[in-house]
Specification:
Layout: E1 5-11, H1 15-23, H2 28-31, E2 35-43, E3 49-58, E4 61-72, E5 76-84, E6 87-98, E7 104-114, H3 120-144
Antiparallel strand pairs: 1-7, 2-3, 3-4, 4-5, 5-6, 6-7
Helix pairs in contact: 1-3
Length: about 140
């Protein structure tokens, strides 16, 4: 992953519960800010998504894109952009670490590139906002189940 932004949060649930929410793409519009649609277009062996189509509307990014996913059990999931309109790159990962007390440290890494010119500082700020919003939404979703 090229220049990237990352952030972490602790979620009061075991890794399997956290990864189950991450893998439930059809529910993303209910908790992931800006996600209007999330549809699994290809499933990997084992039942988790291999490719997912998204419709996103979170200022300043409004796009439709497809991501390819690689799963490492309940430890990590990584993704890369297959195709998008405004997005030229969207590489990321959720890495989960079991704290041994029923909670999980979740680190979200993201590197994105858009077809419109953006100063690097603005791009990193946009990534940071996306990451922090996603982590807070994930925490709230997992802990409410």
């Amino acid at each position: 992953m090229a220049e990237q932004t990352s952030s972490s949060i602790t979620i009061d649930a075991p890794p399997a519960d956290v990864m189950a929410v991450i893998a439930d793409f059809e529910s993303y519009p209910a908790w992931a800010k800006g996600v209007k649609t999330a549809e699994v277009t290809a499933e990997a062996v084992g039942g988790r998504a291999e490719q997912v189509y998204f419709s996103l509307d979170v200022s300043p990014i409004k796009d439709e894109y497809t991501l390819a996913y690689v799963w490492d059990d309940d430890r990590e999931v990584t993704w890369t952009l297959v195709e998008g309109n405004m997005l030229k790159a969207l590489d990321g990962a959720y890495t989960l670490r079991d704290r041994g007390d029923g909670s999980t440290d979740v680190t979200y890494r993201l590197a994105l590139d858009v077809s419109i010119p953006l100063i690097g500082m603005l791009k990193r700020k946009g990534e940071k906002i996306l990451i922090d919003t996603a982590l807070k939404g994930l925490k709230k979703r997992v802990e409410s189940l």
